[in-house]
Amino acid sequence: MGLEAAVAVLNRMVSDRVVSRYAIGGAFGAMFYIEPIETEDLDVYVDFPPDQVIASLEPIYAYLESIGYSERRGIWVIIEGIPVQFLPVAGPLLEEAARQAVNRPVGAGGTPASVFREEHLIALAVSLARPDKDLPRIRQFLAGRTVDSKRLAGVLKRHKLAEKYKSVLKVLRGR
Amino acid sequence: MAGRRQLLQKALREKALWRLERARLPMAEKVRALIRMQTMANEIRLAAGRPLRTVWSE
Fold first, then answer.
1. Which end of chain B lies in a sparser environment, N or C, as judged by fewer CB atoms within 10 Å?
2. Which fold has domain A3-116?
3. In this prediction, does ipTM exceed 0.85?
4. Quick one: B22 exposed, middle or buried, by C-beta within 10 A (0-12, 13-18, 19+)?
């Protein structure tokens, strides 16, 4: 039970070819780069082979059920006690973020978890720019001084978020 | 007034440093901190008679 075991299940989903890749995003993904923040669930973005038509996430749920994870609670599947929300990789920004995700160890056993890069998490936060969630998080990312500014500029430019990022910075500086 | 402002700025700088240190903690420590936060939040929910949420484990 626990986080490391849940990540091992996610890795197994890839090796069993249920998904082509996954990457952790959301608050827990951010926690790999910023201070701990409270969250209830694990946001897991899943990608499929390009030739596969995806109409729903049911194949994932069916697979999980077949290996013993049948508990569902609202939007979540409970994997090793952790509420997990699966979200499809959709759109160029998420596709790039999933392709360039990095492996980070979790737990005592150091099980590798695929996690979005910091620069993509910032770009995703910029794209949403929710005042209560994303703006404080962007501030935390930038305060950490580990952001690769060249990479971030490239991501923002490619996904037409550079102007929006400037506006976000103005708001953050004005506070 | 200037003294108070300086004190406040010092406190804010210290807080920013503390956040920076927390950001650099090993992931295992961050997960433990998250579990502590979830536990504390549940205690507040319990006291307020609100539904409890899942607390993770490592």
1. N
2. Beta Polymerase; domain 2 (3.30.460)
3. no
4. middle
